[in-house]
Amino acid sequence: MKLHHYGFATNSIDKSLKEFQNIGYKAVSDKIIDTIQGVELQFIDNGSDHLIELVAPLDKKDSPVTKILQKSGCSLYHICYEVEDIEKSIEFLKSKRYILVLKPTPAVAFDNRRISFLYNTHLGLIEILEK
Question: Is 52 exposed, middle or buried (0-12, 13-18, 19+ CB in 10 A)?
């Protein structure tokens, strides 16, 4: 598994982007609306080997990041890894006591490559992205 990005939950992509720009990040994508996930997102980079994905809810009542924002405020909330075979990776992670949170689903942000989310009590939420 190769690190792809960190997910950052925010109420406002514009406000968070401005603050990240203050510390050397820049937008490397346009804003993307993902109606399947119920989020708006944008990727930023500071020249390192990873991206940060700013993720904001489309609907404050019914979005996967709404509870995260209510509980923790703006914060890093997932790590995404790119994998060769999403089904094999899910089975491997489940064998290591990860719980499947989201079955493989097409993701608009990645040209409809599939993503899946899994949770581990010691590492939190991870996303896997099909190559």
Answer: buried
